[in-house]
User: What shape does this take?
Amino acid sequence: MTEEIRRWMNTEWLGKELIYKESTDSTNTRVKELAAESALHGTVVAAGAQTDGKGRRGRSWVSPPGVNVYLSVLFRPEFPPARAPMLTMVTAYAMAQAIQEAAELPVQIKWPNDLVIHGKKICGILTEMSVTEGRIQYVVTGIGMNTNMTEFPQEIEDMATSLRLISGREIDRARLMGTMLNYLEKAYDRYEQEQNLEWLQDTYNALLVNYGKEVRVLDPGGEYSGAAEGIDGEGRLLVRKKDGGLIRISSGEVSVRGVYGYAE
Ligand code: BTN
Assistant: This one.
């Protein structure tokens, strides 16, 4: 599989070390192990199946064999830990581009980093970081892309979809993985240079499913709602409250929900 993926790759450093496993517990776990063994910046582990796929907030990620993309990337950034959450948004931006190229579908972003099509989730991103004495040791960014999956467990069937279901055709997974890595390298390089999101803000906002919509902000200090007005250059979601006040929300601090369902 690695040769097939490489056929579509034109990266300089991302995926120089590329490992493909038919099955593993979680590609994030594999990459974290490699990180502890001093693996290189840009190491990628992809798998055909995961037996313990991990989602955000301690959830699991449904990872049946042979149909989807599960891959994780090791980054060893020089920037401070506070910049790492923005990297997840950079990844979402890159994945939106990869989906558009691979399948020409109307993909949108649900802030901060879920990708949705027709209001259903198509791709999730899980970033894990290790910091020692204020310095990042590693960041692992794991991406799960529902690709050719056609059946979903009941708990998620109303919320999830796949590229195949939306496009009506089988997607070449090797090509998709190559394309994902190409866009991810470009976006990472730009972010490393700029260390803010001003350069992708307009594109990101144009894709934002919450844009102009009412969102519920589940703040530990109290729940409120308002209209989402896009992200700023630091990746914070701007929410206009009913009283006219503008709040800037950082990812990780709060959870934002659509008022009518998963992504609306
Ligand atoms: C989410 O909850 O939205 C994040 C899902 C992330 C899933 C991917 S699949 C590849 C990598 N390995 C994992 O165990 N999780 C991530």
Q: What stands out?
A: The CA atoms of residues 11 and 182 lie 6 Å apart. Residues 173-194 form the longest helix (22 residues). The chain has a mean pLDDT of 92. The longest strand covers residues 120-132.
